[in-house]
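Re: the pair you flagged

First of the two:
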Amino acid sequence: MGDAVLEGGCFCGAIRYQLHGGLQPAQACHCSRCRKAFSGPSSAYAALPEGSSLSWLSGAELLTRYAGASGWGLAFCRVCGSTLCGILNGTVHGLILGSVDGDPGVDIARHLFTGSKAAWDHIGGDAPQYDEWPTGDDEERAD
């Protein structure tokens, strides 16, 4: 992970980023809020590990941020609407896997809130599935 360099960007190409340090194991959240935010069956998200470095190569001025009362939110391109990253209290917390060019180097390690997934959502793979937020999980919940 330490030497990994990832690049990515939005659909229209106006915003580009580079990440040094790789990603933590990814998760897919199937809650109704993530379905709305990502216009699909779930999110596909990976947090940045401590010590990683994200830089905006172009278009940073086109980033629009939305955050809820909890401080969790998303940053997206105001031109094309592509969601690029998750934010926590104004700081980039992780990347949306769909925004990464090529292989992000991680797989979906768990599926969250499968108890409220859409009826048309059929989850594949063998990653563990949790009906809600896993009991005893020390990571903060993004709602």
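Second of the two:
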Amino acid sequence: MKLAMGFVLFAVMAVPGVQAKKAQEHEQGVLLSMDSKACGAALKTGKSLTGELLGTDSQKKQTQEVLCQEYTLQTDRIVYRIRPKDEKHAVLLPIGQTVEFRIEKDSMYLRNLQSDRKERQYTVVSMQPRQDANDTKDTHNNEAKN
């Protein structure tokens, strides 16, 4: 009997914690643009297998610049510049459409409302407050004071 009562008490106390963890707020923003930015270099060598085995040093080295997608995401108060964490399997996002996102620790998790709604992980490159949001806030504050 005590074991059953203990189990029921545990279940009742654990349920609110599980619900609170699942109910994370998603913010909304609009994707304004996508640019290709330099994010490193890839080194290609022209060394062949026979050159490796025989030890000949007729090696060509070519450096190629690697480009990454960088998106501008605008919310009510902040403009984010973000890059996909998984650069090899990056998905093109629709510019001009509303997306949902959440920030957890050092990553942004973004999902497109119009497509598969799958969350994808992004790195925040920069954040800037919106100037027009500050101007609107200042106007409302001045009107409230008068």
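Helices lie at 2-22, 49-54, 131-145.

-B.
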